Amino acid sequence: MTSIRTDFPRPTPEQIAAFATIGAATVHEALGRRGAVDSAIKPIWPGLRIVGAAFPLKTQPGDNLTIHAAMKLARPGDVLVVDAGDYTEQGSFGDVMATSAQSLGLAGLVTNGGVRDAAAIRDIGFPIFSRAISIKGTVKATLGPIAQPIVVGGVTVHPGDLIVGDDDGLVVVPLDEVEAVLAASRARLEKEERLRADLQSGKTTWDIGNYDALLAQTGQSLQA
């Protein structure tokens, strides 16, 4: 196998743990509304969360050899991020691979392709976000790029970027922005807590947002 660098920088364990309780939507807003992956890439069952360092790879349609190679090379805590070329008529990752990935300590898998054995994977508990679920199997013939930048769901993913996902979707945080986005996410959560307190006291979102002034700027008014 060609030598592949896998010692690229990653978020610290402390950073990853801090993001484990922050929603993907909050992270997306804190990143300046950047980094949101195509909403068609969804968790394969409700309630999933995924947080970890991106380990990118690219496969050929109908071929999952590169995923097997990446599982051998990735580190515990990594999220396999697969560019399958948006080819969804394949189940390139199933319950046997999920058992192995979980045993290796991988944090999950994201793919713009398809997976299969969804019910069994749910029982195993391995987090997966995919564009599709497909019964069709794959071949093992071509080794694609590993630990190199790819594009998934319209977002460029570099090795070591932070992946955060939940029921709302997925966001990719560039590694060099992780600490700043963490601080901005925490500030946003604190602001939302204050907002909830105001709402519980009887104030409305309209008044808190001063939307009368917003309408006035366009020559409109709210008739109540």
TrEMBL record:
<dbReference type="InterPro" id="IPR005493">
    <property type="entry name" value="RraA/RraA-like"/>
</dbReference>
<dbReference type="Pfam" id="PF03737">
    <property type="entry name" value="RraA-like"/>
</dbReference>
<dbReference type="InterPro" id="IPR036704">
    <property type="entry name" value="RraA/RraA-like_sf"/>
</dbReference>
<protein>
    <submittedName>
        <fullName>4-carboxy-4-hydroxy-2-oxoadipate aldolase/oxaloacetate decarboxylase</fullName>
    </submittedName>
</protein>
